Amino acid sequence: MDARTAAVRTGVAARSGTQSSFARVRGVPRIRLAWGPTDDPSEIAIGGHLGWLAAADSFFQSRALTADARFKLGPVEILGEGFTGRALAGLGGGGIGQNFGPTGAAVRTKGGWGQVNVRPKSDVMLGGGCGLDDPDDRDLSDAVGNPQGRLKNFVCEGHVELRPPGPLVFGFEFRRLETTYPSGKFTANHLNLAAGYKL
Length: 199
Fold this sequence. Notes:
Porin
């Protein structure tokens, strides 16, 4: 078992809290229980975040609680993470990149993702997963109660990785994204093809 603090990922430009004197104490403490091979362990962890954002002449608290897990069962790998918190745009885009709603309320959000990878042979991996970020619509509502901005993000993907003998690596991923706005749902399909050379 170990405890560590991870660096904060910044998904938005440096501003408000990152320029305040409080920003120096931001961090993501994580407590982890791991077992199995040290170079490829299974693990369960919980974590948290506490930070401050400056807006006009006020400071707002940014906070999160997270849980994540990775299980290795022979050729199968199961991964997942869940979170809940508020004002999380600077931590990888939580709240779909929205720290504050139209009335200035810190946006509360919850979400997570899950993924399964299967390696039937050492040179082939197949997998898929889905993720969700669902801000509280009340925090995204204007003064008369009409929701504004991005209300929900949902994504699912499937992928294949091929590592034939030799130095080449090939990958394929299909991803479907769905974002809900007050006017309706908008979708996008994304196809990635990749080839690499490993030394």
